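Model: Ready when you are.
Researcher: Fold this.
Model:
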Amino acid sequence: MFNTFGNRFRLTTFGESHGKCVGAVVDGCPSRLKLSAEDIQVQLDRRRPGQSRLTTARNESDVVRILSGVENGITLGSPIALAIDNLDRKPGDYTKMLNMPRPSHADLTYKLKYSILASSGGGRASARETVGRVAGGAVAEKFLVDRFGVKIVAWVSSVEGIDSPDLSEEKIEREDVDCNELRCPDLKSAAKMIAAIERAAKARDSVGGVVTCVCRNVPAGWGEPVFGKATALLAGAMLSIPACRGFEIGAGFAATRMRGSEHNDMYIRKGKTLGTVTNRSGGIQGGITNGEPVVFRVAFKPTASIGRAQRSADYKGKQVICEVGGRHDPCVVPRAVPIVEAMAALVFADIGLMAG
C-alpha cells in the first residue's frame, strides 16, 4: 500500500476503521514551529462523527495525542507521531458482510489485490482513515500560516444538485462556514440542502455534493513543471479522499462552454506586481501559482453504505440481498470540509518546502 503522501513534508497514516486507534506520522516538518494538541484538535472536532443529525451516529471524541516530535510546544524537526483512539468500535455490525462485497465499496477490489480483508468497517478503505489526514493537515496548516500567511477555507457548495451562490470571491472565514451543521455559509441554500439530506436519510438512502476550497496568500511561483504542477498535485490529493469523484479548478468544466476571449484572465497592476482581473484559472497557470487565490471544487458521490436492501452477489457469485449494517453518513460533504482543507494544506506545505 502507498500510505505516505508528500516529498519534503510527508504524511503517513495508519490504522483501520474498527482497530484500536488511527493516526499519522508527519515527517519533514521544520523545527521550532509552535505546535500544540489544540492546534490539531480544532480540525479533528470539525471532522469527527456524531457531531450533528446530518452525520453518522458513531460517537468518537477523536482526542489527539502527540507522541513524539514536539517538546514544550515546539517542534523538534523529528517525526511527529499523532494517535487517536477508536473508542466507539462495533465490529459486530459487519458480521453479515463477511461473505459478500458491499455494493460500491472497496471490499472486492481489496480482496482481489491482497487476498484478505479487514473484518469490519472497510479497514483502510474506510473514511475513518481520514482522521490521520486531518491531524497531519492541521500541522501543515500551522506551518503555512506561520511561515507564509496562507489561509485555507472550504465549505459545502452543493448537495444533490442544490447549488449555493459562488462565494469564492468573498472573504469567507471558517466562522462563516461553521455557522450551521451543513457547513454552507449561504443560509438560504443550506436550509434546502439540509432538507434534501434529511429526506434521503428518512428513505434509508444517501446523497452526494460538492466542496469548494479557497487558498489565499499562496505565494506566486509555487509548482514544478511539468509533472509536479500544483494543479496536478492538488487533483491527486483530492481524488485520494474516499468517495471523491471529481476535481475542477477555476472555471473548471464550465470553461469548456466558453470561448478563449471569455475565459482568458487579463492582467492589471496590483501593487508592485501584476495580477489578473478575473480568476478563471483558479490561481494557477502552467502548473505554477500566480499569486491569486487558488480556487477549486471537489465532488463527492453519495455514501455507498445505505440502509436499503439491495440485490447483489456474494463472493461465490450467489445472488443475495445485501443490507449494510453499521452507522453511516447520509451525506459525506459536511465532514469532508476539513479533509479537503487538510489535503490542500499538505500539498502546499510540501510545495512550499520544495520552493525553499
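Researcher: Now this one.
Model:
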Amino acid sequence: MNETMNHPALLPAGMRDVLPPEAELEARTVERLMESFAAYGFQRVEPPLLEFEDSLFAGAGAATAEQTFRVMDPESQRMLGFRADTTPQIGRLAATRLAAAPRPLRLAYAGQCLRVRGSQVQPERQVAQAGIELIGHDSALADAEIFLAAAAALAAVGLRQVSFDLTAPQLVAGLLEAAFAPKQRAELARALDRKDAATVASLGGERSKMLLALLAATGNAESAVPALLAIGLPPPARALAERMADIVVAVRARNPALAITVDPVEFRGYRYHTGVCATVFCGATGAELGRGGRYLCGDTEPAAGLTLYPDTIVRVAPAPALRPRVFVPFGTPADAEAALRAQNYATVAGLEQVADAQAEARRQKCSHWLHNGRAAAV
C-alpha cells in the first residue's frame, strides 16, 4: 500500500500528465484558436499564473475565491492565489496596465488554470483555457462579436456543427430575489434548474405563471425568443430578454447557419455575469466546449467574453495533422536531414549504427525511414 502511495507516477487527484501526441495536439489546437482570435482583432496577453489574492479576488474575481488554491509568498509574506479562471485577470489588466488603451479593448489569452475542486462532469483540477474579452462597449453587437469570433475559432479547428445556448443568469435571479424569501428562492432555483414544472407551480405563488412561461420559452431561438418576449416580465428582466433578441438578430446577420438555442432559466457558472451569456456545445457529441457572457470589468466598465476549453476541444475535434516522423540512420549528411524537415517531416536521428534501420524506425514510432535518399513508409 505504501509503495503504491509513494509511486513517482502518482499525481494528486484531478491532475494528469499529458503525453505525446496529445500534448502536441493540444498545443496546435490552442494556436489555431489564437490565430483565429487574432484575425478578429483580439490581441494576446499573458497574465501570471498566480497573483496576490487581494487583486485576484477584486471585482469579478470574488466569484472564484472558493475555487482558488492559496499559498504564502515567502518573499512578501502575503497570500497568493493560483488563478481558477483567467477572465478576472483580464479585468485587472484592463483597469490598470491598459486603462489608457483605446476602447473597445479586444484581448485574447491562453493558459492553464488550477482549481480546488473538479466536478462530476469535469474532474480535472488543472484545466486549459483559451478565450477573448471585449471591454468598454455595451451593446448587442459587442455580445454577438464575441460569439461569432468563438464560432469562427471552433470552425478553424474543424468544429463547424456547434450550438450556442443563450442564457441570462440574472433574469431568474432578479425575479426570485424580488418576490421570495431566501429559502423559497433556493427551492425554486433548484426546481427551475431541474426543469421541474410541478414544483415551480406549487412554490411559485403569484409568480408561478411567469416562471412556468419562462420554462416553456426554451429551445430553438426562432421560437423561444418570441415566446420570451411575450411574457409580461418586469423592466429589468424585460431588458435582458430584449438584449437576447437583439443578439440573435446580430448573429444571424453575420452567420445565418449558426445554431442558437435559448434557456432563460439556466444560471450555472461563475456568478460575475451580469447580462446575456452563452454555453457552447458540440453538435455531434453534446460536449461543452466553452462558456462566457457579459460582466462588469473592474466593477464599472462593461465587458463581454467567452472562454473555450482546449482539453475538451482536442477530444472531439478532428485531429490536426502532425509532422510525419522519419527515422534518419546514423551518419546521414546534415543537408539530407534539413531537406526532410523542409518537406515537413520531423527527423528522428539515429545516434548509433543499427542492423535494421526500418525496424529501428518502427521502434521509435516513426511512420517513415530514410531509404535510398528518400522518406519511405515503414
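Researcher: Key takeaway?
Model: The first strand starts at residue 43 and ends at 44.
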